[in-house]
Automatic annotation (TrEMBL):
GO cellular component assignments: acetyl-CoA carboxylase complex
Pathway the protein contributes to: Lipid metabolism; fatty acid biosynthesis
Assigned keywords, A-Z: Biotin, Fatty acid biosynthesis, Fatty acid metabolism, Lipid biosynthesis, Lipid metabolism
Domain of life: Bacteria
Lipoyl-binding domain ranges (all copies): 75-151
Parts of the chain that traverse the membrane: none
Protein name according to UniProt: Biotin carboxyl carrier protein of acetyl-CoA carboxylase
Example GO molecular function: acetyl-CoA carboxylase activity
Organism from which the protein derives: Desulfuromonas thiophila
């Protein structure tokens, strides 16, 4: 299934009262689920047949939902809200969005996580100072992986 078809399905689900949608064609499986936080999930496996019964599919939420997590050391962890690839800059020639020591405002872009050819900007939810950038540029990330350690200001 092509990306434009998946986008069309997502649009149809979000514009209707449907809370779950599942489609299986040949070796592809699409599952879209809307929860109380309007989270949309898409799972597709076009490269290998899926085992029967279906084990946990690869899930790539398209709407960021994971808030920063506080830890005992006083720092906040900013996790990846989706499965994808971490990018520190908008392009290979550009400087990174943030560096260690930078103070960022709420709503400022920290990085991009690419998922299924969609570039998802990850923004700061609050004013903070970047203490550590945990992931390397172009490194794969899982849902919930820590991307940044920050100090809330």
């Amino acid at each position: 299934m092509e990306m434009k078809d998946i986008k069309t399905l997502i649009k149809l689900v979000t514009e209707s009262d449907i809370t779950e949608f599942e489609l299986e064609q040949d070796e592809e499986r699409i599952f879209i689920k809307r929860g109380s936080q309007e989270v949309i999930q898409v799972a597709a496996s076009a490269y290998a047949p899926m085992p029967q019964p279906v084990a946990s599919p690869v899930v790539a939420p398209l709407a960021p939902t994971a808030p920063a997590a506080a830890v005992a050391d006083g720092y906040e962890r900013i996790p990846s809200p989706i499965v994808g690839t971490f990018y520190a800059a908008p392009s290979p020639e550009s400087p990174p969005y943030v560096k260690v020591g930078d103070v960022v405002e709420a709503g400022q872009t920290l990085c991009i996580v690419e998922a299924m050819k969609l570039m998802n900007e990850i923004e700061a939810e609050f004013k903070c100072k970047v203490v550590e950038i945990v992931k390397a540029n172009a490194e794969p990330v899982e849902y919930g992986d820590v991307l940044f350690v920050v100090e809330k200001i």
